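Following up on my earlier message about guanosine-5'-triphosphate. Here are the inputs again, as you asked, copied directly from the submission form:
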Amino acid sequence: MFVDEARIFVKAGDGGAGCKSFRREKHVPKGGPDGGDGGRGGDVVLEADPSASTLIDYQFKRHFKARRGTHGMGSRMDGAEGADVVLAVPLGTVIKDDETGRTIMDLTHAGQRAIVARGGQGGRGNTHFVTAVRRAPAFAELGMPGEERTIALEMKLLADAALVGFPSAGKSSLIARMSAARPKIADYPFTTLVPNLGVAKAGEYSYVVADVPGLIEGASEGVGLGHAFLRHIERTALILHVIDLSGGHEQRDPVAGITAIDAELSAHAAELALRPQILLGNKIDIPGASEASDRVAVFAAEHEIPYFAVSAVTGDGIEPMMRAVGETVHALRLAAHHEEQPYEAVYVYAPPEDEDLTVEQTARGEFLVKGKHVERMVIITEMSNDEAVAHLQRRLRRAGVEAALLEAGAADGDTITIGPASFEFDSEGAETP
Ligand SMILES: Nc1nc2c(ncn2[C@@H]2O[C@H](COP(=O)(O)OP(=O)(O)OP(=O)(O)O)[C@@H](O)[C@H]2O)c(=O)[nH]1
Ligand SMILES: [Mg+2]
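Thanks, got it. Here's what our run produced:
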């Protein structure tokens, strides 16, 4: 099994800041507060998309940021929410925490969505801080930053298309042309003993190609190596039927060869006869091959099967063939998944457990206050605004921070750190609300 991997950094949008503003009216010197709230930041969402088949795009672009919410404005105008970023990943993508390696979610169904970084809440505008004694609050909250983290993506590949044909038809040579796969290539039958998978990219399409060991007459009864690998072909949506236009060592008639392989496929499983096929006439560079190619083209037209004459050695015809395969795979995937229902996006990181308030004393005698709730209070405070800082002090005291610090032995003048900010402890400094 071939494993496709990527590591990406995701950052959700920051929340917009709340606004501090006052109504301006003709005959009123100072109107009431009317600052709107900041908008929420956008989320980063992964979505299982049946038209994506590899994580190859995430090898190149690895940083993804959702938009921030805009700031609130006067006249109680709230800021706009930041747009989400939705990243398409193939079905079968496993999301893992990069630090712990823990599996967070398995995206197995088309349309399944996972929120991997949640946007920050917008700050509240000054209208929220009016009290009986504070009619004109001259402060507002800042927005919360969006979450950010590195996640690992892993995908176990299933082939979209399988290269099928007699030994030495050039299947391994073709997969080497179409992808970064480098299987052994040699002029003797059964060079390939186990299937090789490669990721092919043609224009906007990418898909997985399998190179399977050669089939011979009787493969469906267990002759040669074909038996086990016919089972592999069963799961691929498209068969790339490779024909040796030179006839090979056996000087096989190319058209008779096509029918012989098809007979083996349908003897193995009747539905393989109905599987969409593309015929690839390989080795068109060899003298005399174009006459064989013309005959295969007539057969293909009669049976309404797409046909491409190619050379794995010179590269002739490879590009249009790869595009056609990409288009067909894309159409087959959409047809297979069009009936799937839309999914609700699920937030996949468990809520933090550290809601509890704790106080630790560091080696340097400083006090470290921890707790999501109180850290959040500090993050949304505009520290250059005295009124906002006084409001924070009151909130922290109400949350029990002062009592916890006194219990931990903190004295006035000690350094207190909460989240991103440090303060000097002053147990009586703030006026009561
Ligand atoms: N001239 C020419 N030779 C080719 C071409 N493609 C493959 N060959 C040669 O054909 C021989 C067989 O190629 P492989 O790619 O190993 O064939 P295969 O279908 O994978 O064979 P098995 O794994 O044994 O089933 C090698 O000697 C290749 O160099 C081509 O387009 N032109
Ligand atoms: Mg091979």
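One observation from looking it over: DSSP finds nine helices and 19 strands in the chain. Hope that helps, and feel free to reply on this thread.
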